[in-house]
Structure formats: C-alpha cells, structure tokens
Design brief:
- This protein is mainly beta.
- It is 5% helix and 39% strand.
- It has four helices and 25 strands.
- It has helices at residues 30-38, 175-180, 268-271, 283-288, and strands at 26-27, 71-80, 87-89, 92-101, 116-123, 134-138, 149-157, 162-171, 188-201, 204-216, 235-241, 249-256, 295-303, 311-321, 328-337, 340-349, 363-369, 377-378, 384-387, 413-419, 423-431, 434-439, 443-448, 451-454, 473-475.
- Strands 2, 3, 4, 5, 6, 7, 8, 9, 10 and 25 form a ten-stranded mixed beta sheet that branches. A five-stranded mixed beta sheet has the order 1-14-13-12-11, with no helix packed on it. Strands 15, 16, 17, 18 and 19 form a five-stranded antiparallel beta sheet that branches.
- Strand 20 and strand 21 (423-431) form a beta hairpin.
- Bound molecules: beta-D-fructofuranose.
- Beta-D-fructofuranose (FRU) is lined by residues 75, 98, 112, 115, 151-152, 168, 235-236, 254, 328-329, 414-415.
C-alpha cells in the first residue's frame, strides 16, 4: 500500500516460521500499530466512525435481546476439539460463557469480580434466529474451582465423553474490591484445568465429575507476576494441536512481559521503524512519553504429558511492548491458503490499554505467519481485524465512562472470537448507553494473505443471528443417546 503522508511505514515482517521452542518473539511494533491511524479518516464529523468499513463491525441495534434474564453473559467459547472445530455433541451445540448474577445487587461493570463459567446448549438443527440458548447453570459446583473467581478459557472434548475445561483461576482477597470493582489488593491468577464428563440426553446437556488441576503461574522472567505489577495479566488459556508438530499440545494465553512495572525500556525493535523513515519516533522520545508501561504479550506453553496436567512455558510468540498492555483471549486459527497452512493469531484488545501516542479501537486484532512461532505480519498492516465503530480522532475512553460526543457504538462489542468460516462472535457491552451482557449478532470476516474484509452480504447488512456459534463437527450421533 502507498504510505500515508505524515505516517511512518509499517515494520517489515517475513512471516518466517521458527521452532516453537526457540526464543524468537514477534513484535507488534509502534510502526505497525501507527497504521491504524494512517488508515483512519481524519475528516469525519466528530463522533462518526473514522475507520474503514472493511474493519468496522456493523452497528448493533439498541433493542438487542437478552440471552438470559438472570445472568449477564460475556466472554464465550464453544466446545471444540484440538483443531478448533466446534463440536456438536449427541445432537447438541454447547457454549461456555463467563456469567454473573443480574440480581445480586452489583452492576454490570462489577461482573469481573463475580465471574463464573456457565454453559448453554441448543439443538444442533435449531433455527439460530428463533430458538434461544438453554441456560444449563454453572459448569463447576460452588467452591470447587481453584481460586474464587473463574475467568476465561476454552473447553475441549477429549476421549469418549471426557472434557477438559481450561480456565483462569483468579483469586480476589479483598471483598471491598469485589463489590466496588478494582483498586484493592491484587488478585492471584493461575491457569488451571478441570477434567470432567459431559452427558447428553433428550432433555439437554449436563456435566459432572470435575477434577481441578493448577497448570501454570507466571514465572516473573517471561511472564509478569502480581508482585511485579498488581495490574498484571495472566489468563485466557486456549489449547490446540499444530499439524507441523504432531503429537504435541500447545497453549496460548494472555501475559505481560516479565519484570517490575515501570522498569521496561522501549527498544528500537519495539518501535520497528525502517531506517531513515522521516516519520519515525526516537527511542528516547518514546521512553520519555511513558509508553514503557504497556507490555502485553501472547504467551506459549507446551504440554509435557498426554493428560495435559503438566506444562512448560515457552517464550512469548508476540509482544506489544510500548504499544498496548493487553492482548487478551488469544487463539490460533489455521487456514490453508494455496496449499500452505497459514497461522492466524487473533487476540482482543481495548482502546484504553494503548500506550502513549498510540490509538486504536476495542476489537479483535490479527497476525499471520507460517507457524505458531513466526515473524507475524499484522493483518491489514496494522493488526486491526475488526473494531467497534469509533471516531479515532477523539481521545480514548473506557466502556464505564464514555462521553456523549463519541460514537455511541465505540464499545458496542468486545471479546471477539473467530470461529470456523470466519464467523466472529462477541458480547454486547454498551450500545448507545444501553448496557449489554448478552451475545452480539455474529458477523463474518473474509481473510486471505493477511488482508480482511467484513462480509456485508452476510445476514442483514453484515449482522448475522445473535449468539450464532454453529458447530462444524458432529460427535456421538444426532440425538441417539
Ligand atoms: C476479556 C477479559 C478476559 C478475562 C475476562 C474477565 O473480556 O478481560 O481477559 O478472562 O474478561 O472478565
């Protein structure tokens, strides 16, 4: 693409694959993420959407339906296999969601401190536009999980009717913090799993027999600990097999660069400017802006045994040092392009977690390379794959306190997850001041060679059914129990 006057060129990335166990960490650089603004329209009327329609999620109507009247629903994932196929089990589609009680006296923004993993099921041949998801309740019994709050993860069907629920075991020590939402004693975070059983009959789906195992806690070297930074992130495990390394199981997760908060120094490779670029920033300039506070990474771990109860850390596959502080709910999506497997790393991020001098929307970001560990090319040159409609010419805000002159849909959706076929599900956060807690209409993105485009022929002007998480692989027949 032609360079935008006044903006730097993006970093050159080869997409070359490295051994997953090697220590090459791809950088989402400032030069890359600056392309978000380079591609944004500086002339829109204040509060309009300034982003290209190709990367803008179509507008969610204000009168969206509630998925459930008793619980708020946010981060959601399907029952999958090790290849990210979404499994219909004995004729039922099953999804897992973070849920919080709508009637317990706390507000929607306090949901994180009260999160549990719940599940929903629906007949595989249901009409996604008409048939509601049935709420099955919490997956784990009260008090059974490691930690006192359950944060995101992923669920895999194993042999027979065994399931592994990978999750973030978060432990808050401060009741006041749980009720007020933040600012108190830092929580513990561990990546855990629970092995249990799924049962299905003509009435629906149940789970039992969960045995919980703690898998990983941050090491302070590659992955930041709470002692190093009370606002650290260590969460959202997603496991998968890599056809290039048969027999191994990998996990990606959200982390931060190890080290004490504030001590990181931005490096030339974090900036990623090409030599002689007239629009480059200097390392000193960036460091004196305070951008070193933002140190997101996407972590990688490998299982040491078949039971997936023992894991070893590998170096992060992506870092966003001096760019952004959170790369959440990472997933690996493998797509065959011209006879070759291309690895797409998708991760969600917020506008308020960008470093000084950087600006981008809430949404899902993507990176493409030739392997799980590769010199990832940011999708659309910037990394942005799909964002909520936002006027990026205005300063960044947070969903709890948006201003009326911004686009009312800047926080319409979050926690996007790319399903087979490019179907992107997410949850509704704030549509023109109407708070969500329910699944968004699913949208579709078409992508190849690292370039993506919202498919506006899908559904109604690009909006598919609410909470459309279809299955693509059937296990155990269709209702033959
Ligand atoms: C994304 C997220 C996850 C976390 C959860 C907590 O929406 O921040 O990283 O597991 O929400 O509610």
């Amino acid at each position: 693409p032609a360079p935008t006057p006044g903006f730097p060129l993006p970093t050159e990335h080869t997409q070359e694959a490295f051994d997953p166990a090697s220590d090459f960490t791809s950088k989402w650089t400032r030069a890359d993420a600056k392309q978000i603004m380079a591609q944004s329209d500086p002339t829109v009327a204040p509060g309009e959407n300034s982003m290209s329609p190709d990367v803008t999620m179509p507008e969610i109507p204000e009168d969206f339906p509630a998925m459930n009247d008793d619980v708020w629903v946010w981060d959601t994932w399907s029952l999958t296999d090790e290849n990210a196929n979404q499994i219909s089990y004995k004729g039922w589609d099953v999804v897992f969601s973070l849920v919080a009680d709508r009637h317990a006296g706390y507000g929607f923004d306090q949901r994180h401190w009260n999160a549990r993993i719940g599940y929903f099921f629906r007949k595989t041949n249901a009409d996604p536009a008409k048939d509601k998801w049935n709420y099955g309740g919490h997956v784990f019994a009260d008090g059974a999980s490691i930690g006192n709050t359950e944060w995101s993860g992923s669920t895999r069907l194993m042999q027979g009717n065994q399931v592994n629920v990978f999750y973030t075991a978060t432990t808050f020590y401060d009741v006041a913090e749980r009720n007020a939402g933040g600012g108190g004693i830092a929580p513990d975070a561990a990546i855990a799993k629970a092995l249990g059983k799924i049962h299905a009959d003509e009435n629906g789906v149940t789970f039992d027999g969960f045995k919980h195992t703690k898998l990983l806690e941050p090491d302070g070297e590659m992955y930041q600990t709470k002692e190093q930074n009370p606002g650290f992130a260590f969460r959202d495990p997603y496991t998968f097999a890599d056809p290039a390394h048969p027999g191994k199981t990998f996990m990606v997760f959200e982390g931060n660069t190890g080290g004490t908060r504030g001590e990181y120094e931005c490096k030339p490779e974090d900036l990623g400017y090409r030599p002689g670029d007239a629009n480059a920033e200097s390392v000193d300039e960036v460091n004196s802006s305070g951008a070193y506070y933002q140190t997101a990474n996407v972590g990688l771990a490998v299982a040491d045994n078949k039971d997936l109860t023992k894991w070893s850390f590998l170096p992060p596959i992506l870092s966003a040092n001096c760019v952004n502080d959170q790369t959440e709910r990472p997933q690996i999506f493998i797509q065959n392009e011209g006879g070759k497997n291309k690895y797409y790393l998708f991760t969600i991020s917020h506008q308020f977690t960008y470093a000084a001098g950087m600006r981008g929307p809430d949404g899902v970001y993507g990176f493409v390379g030739d392997g799980v560990r590769s010199d990832y090319q940011p999708m659309n040159n910037s990394g942005l794959a799909l964002g909520s409609p936002t006027d990026l010419n205005l300063p960044s805000e947070s969903p709890e306190a948006p201003t009326p002159n911004q686009n009312g849909r800047q926080f319409q959706a979050y926690s996007h997850y790319v399903q087979p076929g490019g179907l992107v599900q997410s949850f509704i956060d704030n549509v023109n001041g109407v708070r969500g807690g329910s699944l968004s209409p699913t949208v579709k993105i078409n992508f190849r060679d690292g370039i993506s485009q919202v498919d506006r022929t899908f559904g109604q002007d690009g909006l598919g059914p609410f909470g459309y998480l279809p299955t693509n692989v059937r296990v155990g027949g269709e209702g033959h129990y």
